[in-house]
Amino acid sequence: MIVILVAVIGLIGWGYIKSEDKPLDVVANVDVDRYLGKWHEIARFEHRFQEGCVNSTATYSLREDGDIRVENACEVVGESNMRSATGRAWVVEDETNAKLRVQFFLADLKIPVLSGRYWILALADDYSYVMVGEPGREYLWILSRTPELSDHTIRDLIQKAQVAGFDTKRLLFNSDLIT
């Protein structure tokens, strides 16, 4: 069991310090207080931890220690109950506040090698939508303050993601998942 745990931590650590990632631009500034609140998932890259999820939401609130509480929830296709997970996020680049780490496993402890990169790549001036990814281009989310986002805005975000090197053919849209 110890060997497996060490191997898992090693693999996670490798992802934490991967150096072959191509540069990835983030937004110039994020007002964390304005960013807090509920976000609805419009589209995402599929991953094991969100398999079967529809109508996903992420709710961010300030923790007493200054970090951010992350509450993710979704409906699960074919199940009557909701799936949820609670974690923590923290800013790792104070100049813009656009680069964060997010951790769900052992979230009461801040362990950077157990966290994922959460980089804000696009953000509406009025904080009505956001696009989040990471330098390895393995994760991508388009979120909105409302359950729907205009086709024009979605097309603009997809184009921005393509220019940044994301394989946008991998995007799953909530509207397609619930039909």
CATH superfamily: Calycin beta-barrel core domain
Report the count of strand segments: 9
User: What is the H-and-E element order?
Assistant: HHEEEEEEEEHEH
Uncertain runs: 1-19
How large is the radius of gyration? 16 Å
- Overall pLDDT confidence: 86
Give the name of the CATH architecture.
Beta Barrel
CATH class identity = Mainly Beta
End-to-end CA span: 42 Å
Sheet/helix structural class: alpha+beta
Number of domains: 1
Largest sheet: 8 strands, antiparallel, barrel
What's the multimeric state? single chain
Shape: globular
Strand order in the largest sheet: 1-2-3-4-5-6-7-8
- CATH fold-type name: Lipocalin
Structure annotation, total helices: 4
What amount of the residues lies in strands?
35-45%
Residues in helix, %: 10-25%
Which keywords apply here?
single chain, 179 residues, alpha+beta, Lipocalin, disordered N terminus
How are the elements arranged and paired?
Layout (H helix, E strand, L loop, with lengths): L1 H16 L14 H4 L1 E9 L7 E10 L5 E9 L5 E10 L7 E5 L12 E8 L5 E5 L6 E5 L6 H13 L7 E3 H4 L2
